[in-house]
Design goal:
InterPro entries: SdpI/YhfL (IPR025962). This protein is about 75% helix and about 0% strand. The chain is an all-alpha fold.
């Protein structure tokens, strides 16, 4: 039961961060807060679009973490925390690929 509680607390924190990000998005390009990649920091227009998509990335990571961690907690409780963390990272990587693809589609591919 402790494993499941840990997974839900961890996932809940990630979801809470996503909510904060959704309701308080960064207004200007900065190095501290928001979806920060070389591509997203290219212009204010790209920054604003990327940071509208950013909370979706956080939500997906949080939900994926809770889902995978909960299933693992039921099957192999000793591996639940690791599974939740790995799921969140896999979700984050997939989300970055998704957002960068959306940026390329909307704004064109960046010049090298």
């Amino acid at each position: 039961m402790d494993a499941l509680l840990n997974v839900w607390i961890f996932g809940g924190i990630i979801l809470a961060v996503g909510l904060i990000y959704k309701f308080f998005p960064p207004k200007k390009i900065n190095n501290w807060y928001g979806y920060r990649t070389a591509r997203s920091m290219n212009s204010q227009e790209v920054w604003e679009y990327a940071n509208k998509l950013g909370p979706n990335l956080i939500f997906a990571g949080g939900f994926l973490s809770i889902l995978v961690g909960s299933i693992t907690a039921y099957l192999q409780p000793e591996k639940a925390n690791t599974a939740a963390l790995v799921a969140m990272f896999v979700g984050a990587i997939g989300g970055i690929v998704w957002i960068e693809g959306k940026l390329n589609k909307k704004f064109g591919k960046p010049n090298p």
